[in-house]
Amino acid sequence: MSDPPLVLLHGLWDTPRLFARLETALLERHPQLEIYAPHLPHRLGAVPIRELAAQLAVLLDARFGPEMPLDLFGFSMGGVVARTWLQEQGGHRRTRRFICLGSPQQGTLAAQLVPRPLLAGIADMKIGSRLLRQLRRDGALLRGLECHSFFTPTDLTVMPGWRAVLPVGSRRALPVLTHRQLITHPRAISRLVDVLLAG
User: Fold this and answer.
1) In the prediction, which pLDDT does 199 show?
2) pLDDT of the residue at 1
3) Structural domains in the chain (count)
4) Among 14, 16, 132, 135, which residue has the fewest nearby CB atoms (within 10 Å)?
5) Does residue 182 fall inside a structural domain?
C-alpha cells in the first residue's frame, strides 16, 4: 500500500519555497512520495488562523477530494493552522500522521503585545488566546492520530521553546539553536525525514 500524500504548511512570512531542502531529502529516499505544499497568504499576520484553516480545507478538497488520507506537517504558524484544520474542519478524520515543528501550540511570548485588530493571525498565537484555549479543550480529537512535536529550547520565535508542543504524542528537541535552523539545518532535516517516512 502506498503512503498517503504529505502536506507541508509554511509559517508566517514564509512561502512553500521554505521546504526546498526538506523536499529534496524526502524525495531522495522516497521518490514516489506525493508532496503538496500550498501557499497560504498570511498578509504579514493579519489573517486569522481560523480563516487560513478554512482556506486550507478548500485547497485540500480541491487537490485530493474530501476523503483521501493525508499526512500533515506544519512549521511554525503553519502547525497551528494545521491543527485548527484538524480539529475544527474535520481533518482529523482523514489524517494519519501530524507533525509540527517549532509551532506555538501553547502560544508564544513573542505574540503577547500584538494588537488583534491589526494582526489577528499573530494574536491567535498569544499564550491563552481564545483559539488556543478552544483547541486545548477539543484536544481529544488528536488522540486518534500519530502526533509528533519538534522544537528547540533556544527558540526566540516560540518563547519559551518548550511551548512548541502538542498535548499528545512524542516531543523531541532538535540539536539546533534557532527557529529557522529547525527547517534548514542538515541535522534537523535528517531527523525530520526519519519520522516523516517512518513505516
Assistant:
1) 76
2) 54
3) 1
4) 16
5) yes
Q: What is the pLDDT of residues 57-66, one digit of tens each?
A: 999 999 999 9
**84-115 exposure pattern, b = at least 16 Cβ within 10 A, e = fewer:** bbbbbbebbebbebbbbbbbbbbbbebbeebe
Angle between the N-to-C axes of helices 186-196 and 20-29, in degrees from 0 to 180, rounded to the nearest 10: 50
Query: Residue 190 CB: number of other CB atoms within 10 A?
Result: 11
pLDDT at 65: 97
pLDDT above 90 as % of the chain? 97
In a domain, 1, yes or no: no
Residue of 31, 36, 34 lying closest to 16 (CA atoms) = 36
Distance CA 84, CA 55 (A): 11
Residue 71 and residue 4 in contact, taking contact as beta carbons nearer than 8 Å: yes
The CATH number of the domain holding residue 165 is 3.40.50.1820
Tally of residues, the chain? 199
